[in-house]
Amino acid sequence: MSALSPASDVPMVGATVSHADFVKISAILYDIAGIKLNDGKEGLVVSRLGKRMREVGELTFKAYIKRVQEDPAEMREMIDRLTTNKTSFFRESAHFDFLARTALPAWGGRDITIWSAGCSSGEEPYTIATVMYDFAQGGDVNGRILATDLSHRVLAKAKEGAYTAENVRDIPPQTLNRHFERQRDGAHDRWVAKPHLRSIIRFGKLNLMGDWPMKGAFDAIFCRNVMIYFDRETQERLVQRFSKLLAPDGYLFIGHSETLHSLKHDLRYVAPAAYAKAAS
Ligand SMILES: C[S@@+](CC[C@H](N)C(=O)[O-])C[C@H]1O[C@@H](n2cnc3c(N)ncnc32)[C@H](O)[C@@H]1O
Questions:
Q1: Which of the listed residues 73, 148, 209, 279 has the most CB atoms within 10 Å of its CB?
Q2: Both 229 and 160 in a single domain?
Q3: C-beta 122 within 6 A of ligand 1
Q4: pTM attached to this predicted model
Q5: SS3 147
Q6: Is 75 inside any structural domain?
Q7: Are strands 180-185 and 112-117 parallel, antiparallel or unpaired?
Q8: d(CA 76, CA 16)
Q9: Is the shortest distance between the CB of 154 and ligand 1 below 6 Å?
Q10: Claim to verify: residue 153 and residue 265 sit in the same structural domain
């Protein structure tokens, strides 16, 4: 990888990371967030942390790592910058069909609690909320959603609940108009989650590697496209913890590119990337 800026031939701050520094950064990320950065991800570290280093005036990774080790706030910031937050409304939409056609009817209108674990900028919990409201057909929704993530940056966006036209393009138009308000934002429109949608979601910061204050039981846990960044042992531990928090007829949804195949757990496969707590 070139350490030279094409424009000026002057070394760019953070343009390369030595193997030793990469290993140190990976170890911190793994210890705190459970995220495994494999060899070959040096470019990702450079692009995500280089900007932060410029913001705080550190010229080398060595100096930046020292700063991170001495300052817990900077440690959190570094972890935050290294998380991958890609998400979208109605992502892997078969899960939301399952929720509307199988799970919600089976729960029979009882008061339900759903956890979106690793909710990123909110598209997943807001999608769940639209499905719950549409299922209630204009009536009150009996239930709530806990939405958590490690990253304060994405949580701030989730709490704001404002999305661009591009962000909302996968929401069916009727659903969009029912649950989001169109606002003018300079030259562009933005779509803001309506109060009824927000009223059933509670956002909070939670590191899945740490202690969980919630006691359950959850009727469904969505932990999609999060465990893919963890190693096998961490995934297994997490799935077993999720299982303990599920209601007897609860479901765990994982990402469609993820599998519980080689993990020890007591859940039953019911549909692609969907598992049930017990026979149902
Ligand atoms: C790729 S996004 C997935 C978002 C959403 N679940 C989806 O499927 O569209 C993964 C999210 O997991 C979060 N995450 C990663 N490690 C975490 C951890 N140890 N604890 C809590 N959240 C974590 C990241 O901050 C990121 O927002």
A1: 148
A2: yes
A3: no
A4: 0.93
A5: strand
A6: yes
A7: unpaired
A8: 22
A9: yes
A10: yes
Q: Which residues are catalytic?
A: 48, 149
What is the domain range of residue 188?
Answer: 94-276
Of 78, 27, 74, 80, whose CA–CA distance to 50 is shortest? Answer: 78
76 lies in the same domain as 103: no
* Ligand 1 pocket member 150 (CB < 6 A): yes
Q: Which of 86, 87, 3 is nearest to 43 (CA)?
A: 3
**Residue 226 Cβ < 6 Å to ligand 1:** yes
Calpha distance 102→260 (Å, rounded): 21
Our count of domains for the chain comes to 2
Q: For residue 4, how far is its CA from the centre of ligand 1 (angstroms)?
A: 34
* Mean pLDDT, contiguous 10-residue spans, the chain (280 residues): 35 72 97 93 94 94 96 96 97 98 94 98 98 92 96 97 96 96 90 97 97 94 97 97 96 96 95 85
Residue type at position 25? I
Residue with the smallest CA separation from ligand 1 atom 10 is 226
Q: How many helices (H) and strands (E) does the chain have?
A: 11, 10
Separation of alpha carbons 97 and 119, rounded Å: 19
Spatial CA neighbour of 230 closest among 87, 39, 36: 36
Q: Whose CA is nearest to atom 7 of ligand 1?
A: 87
Q: What is the side-by-side strand order in the sheet with 246-254?
A: 201-205, 143-149, 112-117, 218-223, 246-254, 274-276, 268-271
In a domain, 5, yes or no: no
